[in-house]
Amino acid sequence: MITSEKVHIWQFLVTDETPIERLKGFLNQKEKIDSEKFVLKKDRDLSIASKYMLKKLLSNYLNQSLSSVKLYRDHNNKPYLKDTDLKFNLSHSNSAILVAITLQNSIGVDIEDSSKIIDVFSIVNRYFSSFEIESLKNTDPDLQVKAFYNLWTRKEAFIKALGGGLSIPLVSFGMESAEKNYPHFIHLDWNGENQNDWTIYSYKPFPKYQASCVVKNQKATFEIFDFKVS
Predict the structure, then answer these.
(1) Which residue of 1, 23, 37, 73 is most buried, as measured by CB atoms within 10 A?
(2) Spelled out in words, what is the top-level CATH class assigned to the domain 6-226?
(3) pTM of this structure
(4) Per-residue pLDDT averaged across 61-78, rounded?
């Protein structure tokens, strides 16, 4: 059972066996049009699967039909539901999809394909706090990319939980980069937020992927589920 102190994280990997055309049939016209905007088939398939997965899960928690689930957008374009305490967030990368669900509390989730080759410090020096930069510089060079994705998913998930998008400076808060399930904030200097009100959870949902979820509840616990297409 979902509660304000429990977070359910659902994970799914799109494969060649995923019945994309059948899933597309569950989407409304606007959702179909939005998915068709992607040039690459892989991206279209991911869009269709993620839209289906989100609405299917929400319909289960709300105990109503998938077609009756109506999503709204706030001024930052973050989707939400009306007339319910159910809170959720979705993230996808490459072929992987995550949906995080809880009650009452602000929540954000992020997943990244951590196999991508990147120049860590070209990104870090522009967007990360001074503590985070120093922490990464002191990390074993062989582990710096892994530490970067730990940090990136945690920071992205937190921004998504706040719902402010790019208006929130990434340097206004710092997090641990260590490989652990429950990392901590190092500092949080944004809009009166208290770092002790939040729980960060990080894990590897699939090989070559890194994910994090952040929720505004200091006692939150997390359960992981595999989503099955039905």
Answers:
(1) 23
(2) alpha beta
(3) 0.96
(4) 93
